[in-house]
Write a structure and sequence with these properties.
With 502 residues, the chain is α/β, with parallel strands linked by helices. It has two domains: 265 residues, Aldehyde Dehydrogenase, Chain A, domain 1 (3-Layer(aba) Sandwich); 182 residues, Aldehyde Dehydrogenase, Chain A, domain 2 (3-Layer(aba) Sandwich). 39% of the residues lie in helices and 20% in strands. The protein is built from 17 helices and 21 strands. It has a seven-stranded mixed β-sheet with strand order 13-14-15-12-11-17-18, with helices on both faces. A six-stranded mixed β-sheet has the order 8-7-6-9-10-20, with helices on both faces. The longest helix has 21 residues. The termini are far apart. The mean pLDDT is 97. Bound molecules: ligand TXE. The site of ligand TXE has 27 residues, from helix 9 and helix 10.
Amino acid sequence: MTLFTTDALEGRCLPLFINNEFVPSQGQSFPSYDPATGAEWSSMPDATADEVDRAVRAARGAMTSAAWRDMSQTDRGSLMYRLADLISQNVDRLSRLEVRDNGKLLKEMTALTHAVAASMRYFAGMADKIEGTTIPVNKPDMLNFTLREPVGVIAAIVPWNSPLLLLNRAFSPAIAAGNAMVVKPSEHSAASILAFAELVAEAGFPPGVFNVVTGGGQTVGDALVRHPEVDKIDFTGGPETGRVIAASAAQNLTPAILELGGKSPNIICADADLDRAVTGVVSGIFAAGGQTCVAGSRCLVHDSIYDEVAERLVARAAEIRIGAPTEADTQLGPLALWSQVEKVGRFVEGAKTAGAKLLAGGGRAEQMGAGWYVQPTIFGDVTNEMDIARNEIFGPVLGLIRYSDDEDMIAKANDTRYGLASGLWTNDMERAMRFMRRINAGMVWINTYRSPSVMAPSGGYKDSGYGKHNGFAAINEFTRIKTVVIDYSGKTHDPFVMRVQS
Ligand code: TXE
């Protein structure tokens, strides 16, 4: 019987996972809460520095073991296919663990867990198709080619909003490329990642390829990031933490991928199909309670349609069904953390003081009792200078910003320290093309929003971070290039002159 179900874990403490074994931690434990009720449901340990070290050494051991290092690429892919099948067979159990930890809708987490299995299959198929290149250098009698090698031990630091999906953005390409991994899940949502670890062992991965250490960011996360045996860091979280991690990583010159959220513009042009556009804005900010890195939290609207759009959005917000995340017809569940409820409250008060007009919501959804629910909230008359438009809130809070013409629109869209995603609703393809070129963001969605694909690179510009997930770009992130030169001329050359020419 597995420990990793919502019932079995009730009141229990999570273990660590090192070398394919679940081990109890010597560290202090702290509670994990159910956001739907606000009640404690399980706990997890704050792994000790020694345990972090053991996990990293286990991963290093896998990298040097014949079982992993010498496994053929095709066999690596086969293990990933097997794991993907196990995930597919356990979608409901894994999704319910995520919902218990982070309060997101069961139907959303179910879709995301299916997506984890699908994207694992995509990368499994890549495992034996990672190639170097042969370079026709300007030197006769020399062969020059590149090898793509695994980077080594990957440390993944995962947030609470979509634990398995965000873990897997690193896991699948890293493992397909032959790396080993230590993950530190969020201190708010580790259960599904330990359930995933159990499936990793069941699929038959050699010991040490995947390890889990739970605990706080400044304790366990920091020890992991600073570990000298870590070869690359994959971090998803807030920009302040991202800066701390980049600084810690710099001590060992450890490279990192940082995905740090955004303040993405979702723009409605005067010529847009308003039904589709308004639905796209609703999906961009109210789906997942706005707790998504690509949330379209700034809605830029052309002056001529501003009043109509505001009216339609307010009507749509009033229809959103707030309820328990496991109920099939719920559209907005609780926020994952009490601190996020407080954060939303601070932004709402700040926006009112700054002169924004509260059009909808603005408070807690009191009918949901002690659960961490807030109302879908819309502010009108927002300007880019206001805090509500400058900082990521990570909640269901939308700001409406007017614009006058395309120049004003692009200037306002780009007037942000972030640059993750962007959306534009228009039927004018020339306008769409100009926007696509000039927007300073890593992802552009035209007449759609929140439509990522595992096959397409995703990642931010500016304070939204650096490095790419998904697509072949992710394989590039988790491999390094070695250049090999072979001289078959049989000649001896002047030793005091570098052979830059033939
Ligand atoms: O994130 P943190 P928090 C944004 C969102 C949210 C804000 C704060 O705006 O309101 O960040 O959320 C680990 N060394 N996003 O506090 O702190 C931490 O334990 C190593 C956007 O939850 O960034 C957790 O595992 N690790 C976002 C992870 O970092 C450290 C998703 C994320 O935590 C660490 C989540 C340290 N010094 C929040 N400090 C997105 N891009 O989707 C913390 N951690």
